[in-house]
Amino acid sequence: MKKFLFAVGGLMLLTACGGNDRAAIVDSCMADGGSDKKTCECMADAAEKNLNDKLYGKLADAARKGDENAANALMDDLSAEDKGQFMAFAMQAAMTCGAPE
Questions:
Q1: Closest CA to 54 of 30, 29, 79
Q2: Do residues 48 and 26 lie in contact, with contact meaning Cβ atoms separated by under 8 Å?
């Protein structure tokens, strides 16, 4: 579980190479090196399914920016409700996507 949370953090910390939000999240996840493409795609799909549009967009923007400040700013700027939604997504994705141990 701890490694999964780092992978989710990696989604927000690393630079993404591509165009759309899903591609940015997948590319960032894969660049972290802790997850394979299938797991990263699953996590990106889970984010799209479980996060509201605003929060999903913020996650993708943080992935594109690829720095720790962007990730910290994302989490700092979230309301308590959005933080709860993000954590629910992270837990759901951990169970669904078979995150590495």
A1: 79
A2: no
Structure pTM? Answer: 0.71
Residues 6+ apart with CB under 8 A from 77: 58
Q: Give one DSSP letter per residue of 40-98, joined into a string.
A: HHHHHHHHHHHS-HHHHHHHHHHHHH-SHHHHHHHHHHS-HHHHHHHHHHHHHHHHHTT
> Could you read off the pLDDT tens digit of each residue along the chain, which spans 101 residues?
445 555 555 554 443 333 599 999 999 888 877 788 999 999 999 999 999 999 999 899 888 887 677 777 778 888 999 999 999 998 988 898 875 54
Task: Quote the CA–CA distance of 45 and 42 in Å, as a whole number.
Answer: 5
Q: What is the DSSP letter of 15?
A: P
Eight-state DSSP code of residue 30: H
